[in-house]
Each structure stands twice: as C-alpha cells, then as structure tokens.
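Q: My labmate handed me this sequence with no annotations at all. I'd like to see what the chain might look like in three dimensions before we decide whether it's worth expressing. Could you predict it?
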Amino acid sequence: MSLLRRDTARLTPGQARVRTADGDAVLLDVREQAEWNAGHAPGAVHLPLSRLAGGAGLPASAQGRPLVVICRSGHRSRQAVGLLAGHGAEAVDVKGGMSAWASAGLPVVDARGSSGRIA
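A: Here is what I predict for the chain of 119 residues:
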C-alpha cells in the first residue's frame, strides 16, 4: 500500500523526510508567512492554508506530484489534505507537524537559510 493514497494515512516526520528527500513527493508547508520565515524544512514548498482555502493553485513545483503536507502541529495540514484530495491531488499529512519534525532532530532553516525555529 502506498503511503500517499487518498485515505486517512498519516506519516511520521521520519517517513515524510524519506518520501520527500528523494524527490518522490513534495513537502508542502501550509503555515502562514511568519511561521515559514521563522523556520521550515529545507526543500519544502510554501502555500499557506489561507491561500489554498481561498482557491490559490499549487506552486508549479508541486503540481501533478504526490504531496506530503505539514503545518505546525498537524491540524491545518489535515484540513489542507481534505481540500487537496477534493481536487484530485494525492496528499497525506505529517503527524505532529513541524513541532514533531524539529523534535525528531530533523533540519529546520529560516528564511535566510540559517538555523530556524518553529513559531
């Protein structure tokens, strides 16, 4: 069974990193701009949930690809997965979000590429 099926599957931060590190899937961060600027996963693509809910399309680098969606704690990413799945996208979320990502010791960078923090 694929971890990126349109169902209730959720990935751990470690699974998310593996799925996105090799380019198989895109890590889509749906937090707001200030949160993104403070710290995000390297290589993630940013599209705030507020913009997605308002009808914004996916960034070009995420179109037509499986999506691993992340927010701060997992609540907004679950909402985003629902919206994306409704439009036919393959999407799953990261259980525990960026808080769990950072707690797992995975890298976080700020808007300048320096060591970031979860806001």
